[in-house]
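Give me the fold.
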Amino acid sequence: MDNPLEQQAPKSILERAHEFARDMAYGVSVGKWGTKISLQLASGGARWKAETAHIGGQKDPFWEYIETKWNHNPPSHTLMDTLGYFLTDSRDGRGFYSYILSKKCFDLLEKPPTSPNTFISYRRGHSTGFALYLEARLRLAGNNAVYVDKALEPGSQWRDVLTEKINQSKFMIVLCTHGTFDGDPEKNWVFREVRMAQQAGCAIIPILHPAGRDDFNARDIPNSPELDALRDSQVIKVQDATAAEYEVAANKLLSYMGYSTY
């Protein structure tokens, strides 16, 4: 997992609050500080503090985090309180506040700190419904950086658009079934997208699914250098063309990508 404490702070007010909450929960989870957060309001601004195990002469990790990521100006404690991320522990009426991080902060750890760009490669007429289902499941899990080529506008230069999207992606999901790889590899877009993903260094996740009653297995993937990555990767297999099996596959995919599933 990328260290969220080292990532650049967002600009949107609400996004900043959500990220601050997640960061603090992450800090607790890796032992940097405890669940109690306090601040003292003064004319020079708020001074934030957390329970840490640093020794005199060492830099306080929480203070360093507030300084480095937030430039001493994290989201306001009132906003964090309003959003349910802080539970009031005490306040003395003279500008001193003490809070406990709520469970809501720790719930944010159940998904990656940022949505990984994800490209779904599929063949129209063979896996369209499954591609749209996976897109919806990823968005429901909080990943709004998923791309399916249904968004291409008429007249767009397909190769330029797809190359850009693939180069930006961390993951490529390849939906494989009977007919996916038929035809000339130079004219088959799934072949070409897999090749571009290999060149871009994407993590390739093949999902094998049946076509009607006909099962599809790894041995059904054509023997081609472009498709070696599909055989060498961790394959997700859909056993039957049922809603329950599609959901099992979606949960395996989400787990692989770092999302919690239930």
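The chain has a mean pLDDT of 88.
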